[in-house]
């Protein structure tokens, strides 16, 4: 079996995530990286998901988008939820 070349992601930014550690491996043998989000959250993410842009935050973006939707703030651009208040 041919081993894949490892791409060093430490120090790179992907969305709100900054890669701070790794590489580790998950149960399938894929390289995973420890990432710190701008909100302070930490998440383990595969390198493939980072490079493809599938993961952009620790989950905080989903919470912000959900709150904006349920508050009805997405309909009126003048009525925005301040992101600093959500963390």
Outline the structure in words.
- The structure is a single chain.
- With 87 residues, the chain is α+β, with helices and mostly antiparallel strands.
- The chain has one domain.
- 21% of the residues lie in helices and 26% in strands.
- The chain contains 2 helices and 4 strands.
- The protein has helices at 47-52, 60-71, and strands at 13-14, 17-25, 31-37, 42-46.
- The protein has a 4-stranded antiparallel beta sheet with strand order 1-2-3-4.
- The radius of gyration is 16 Å and the shape is elongated.
- The mean pLDDT is 80.
What's this entry about, in short?
This protein has 87 residues and is α+β, with helices and mostly antiparallel strands. It has helices at residues 47-52, 60-71, and strands at residues 13-14, 17-25, 31-37, 42-46.
Give structural attributes.
elongated; about 25% strand; 2 helices; about 90 residues; alpha+beta
Tertiary shape: elongated
> What structural class do you assign from the helix and strand content?
alpha+beta
Ranges where pLDDT stays below 50 over 5 or more residues in a row are none
Number of strands: 4
In percent, how much strand structure appears in the residues?
25-35%
Cα Rg: 16 Å
Put simply, the count of helices is: 2
What is the arithmetic mean of pLDDT?
A: 80
Count of folded domains: 1
Largest sheet: 4 strands, antiparallel
Fold topology:
Layout: E1 13-14, E2 17-25, E3 31-37, E4 42-46, H1 47-52, H2 60-71
Antiparallel strand pairs: 1-2, 2-3, 3-4
